[in-house]
Amino acid sequence: MQSDDEGRLPELVPIRYERMLQSPFTFYRGAASIMAGDLQATPVSGIKSQICGDAHLLNFGAYASPERRFVFDVNDFDETTSGGAWEWDLKRLATSVTVAARHLELRSSEIEGCTLACARSYRQNMLRYSTLHVLDIWYSRIDESLLAEAIQSADARRAARGLIHQKPSVTSAHLFPSLVTGQDGELRIVEKPPQIFHPPDDAAFIDSMRSAFAHYDRSLTIERRALVGRFHFIDAAYKVVGVGSVGTRCAVALFLAGSDDPLFLQIKEARASVYERYVGAAKFADHGERVVAGQRLMQAATDLFLGWTRADDGHCYYVRQLRDLKTGADIDRMTAAELESYATLCGWALARAHAKASGEAERIAGYLGRSGIFDEALVAFASGYADQNEKDFEALVAAVKSGRVAVGTSLAEAAPASAG
Fold first, then answer.
1. What is the extent of the structural domain holding 156?
2. Staple 270 to which of 120, 240, 287, 331, CB 3.0 to 4.6 Å?
């Protein structure tokens, strides 16, 4: 686990462990590298695919396509890689269902039912995609109309469609008043430590961000390059996000096309995928390009501003809009029925992503079969690995108690001394 800390901003690493200590579920979210090592030793079919690499429940969500239509899909690709086993994604997703259900203290039968629903959804939807023409798979997306047709139960439909029907109104224009303030006649991103802050060496940090964005438009198509060119860089600040990403160089940047015409972009450091040591180095020279390529290949629709860049200091990044009409699941508030519906939806989204990215829907569907044998085997795997996850979590608790691992959340501990 601590080998993951190499290359991270050391002042932020204690926050990562602080978050992982909240529960076995939050630990699981930050332990992709541990599971990658375990998964590569498990039996697989030999059918390769582009994988997202970290397919847990909270890495799915609803967002607006460039046409401003809401879709539900996988939404995190930091660990994406080609040449992986599709089973690795599915096993990580199914296990996250079991871990989340235990976190909610559901009954054993409910835990099994939620995980079984995820496995069954993946298998049945992969079978359906195996009957479609290639272009039909590429055009497919999980939107409101599909959900209405596919989910018959009123309770299940309400739970699953809730993510899309929320239709969040958060855009750059909505974020502007709360995230920006005027200081000495200049606009600055509001600090909300330890989540958002400017580092002590702010000038060097800003220079690094300017350097990164100076190269960013090269990764965009001509029309999107023209769009980005209408905005100019104003400010940037570190933004601590998620669990597994804490300690990597993640920031939010403010751009303006006019005094009341803002754009917020999130820039995240792209490091080697946790699967690289098992499947070989990515074919891309830049890990930011690897992330973007995987996302474009697997998602039904991608962010209008999705691109990659490299700063002059050598760090690789990918870029996307900040919270543009995005919404995610609130696992902590779910009932058993809601978790089962959500797990069904995630299994469906993962099957669509694998069918599109691999071109192997027929082979995967043939391997899975029409019976529930595979589903039950996946439930058993998820239960066993959830047990292992709890042991790993307790090992982290013990390491913190012994002082071998430091935790902390104060700004003093969070603010990096260097942006490099």
1. 2-167+332-402
2. 287
